[in-house]
Amino acid sequence: FLTTGLYTLSTLIIPRRLISAGINYREALSLMGKFSNMALSIPLFPSIILTSICTILIPDLSESMSKGNYFSMENRIEKIIKIALILSLSTLSICAAIPNELGLMFFNRTDLGNYIRFLSFSTPFAYVSIISYAILNGIGKQKILLRNSIIVAIEDLIFLYILTGLSFINIYGYGITLIITSITSIVLNFKEIKKHCFIKIDLHEKFIYALCTILVYLILNLLNNIILIQNIYIKNILIIFSGFSLMFILINITNKKH
After folding, report:
1. What averages of pLDDT result for each successive group of 10 residues across the chain (258 residues)?
2. What sections of the sequence does the record tag as coiled-coil (predicted)?
3. Element housing 47 (H / E)
4. Distance between CA 237 and CA 227 in Å, rounded?
């Protein structure tokens, strides 16, 4: 209830802070609607898959922990983190390559491109953050989960208040805050998770993932220019499918070599 109240308060202060940044009330509401209700929903849409996986993951982790099968638990956690990264980095590549087209496809608007591209950079952090909360829940650390949620909600409120009130940042403060709070939740949650199971963080592997993301982005940009299909829905679906497929194939190839 407390975290819900804090997030509700965060939502309510955004228009007021935008007004203090020199934006009129009607424009402030319009910006908030376009940024949080339209643009943000596109890069976060694939996270529905993660939410579904989490419903299976939580009881599975609980069972493994109750049996003392830490190897199985660690293996599950590593796999789900990898899925979250592949899904988020694919989404980042797609949203960064065709943001204007996605805005036109989903909302029939041509003014969402910059917002979608900017918000796409929050996906790796937001997706892993979602997973980290599910893992905490699965290993029976509900009190820690609640504590971390409250800390992140307070941080969200503070950064939204500061950043959205700056005229040169304004509504982009919402996206910056999302990135900051997602990183905070990842750090806090995994600090607790690592007390109960070993999680290997391979920086070399993550660097390869970053290179794969750049490569997929460049390929999708090229495809967007060379595909001559006039129907924007068919063209976008082809590019989206290519983005997820390419990322999955590239990361699997590099993992086998690694």
Report:
1. 75 88 90 92 92 84 81 86 93 96 94 95 95 90 91 93 91 94 95 85 86 95 91 94 94 75
2. none
3. helix 47-66
4. 12
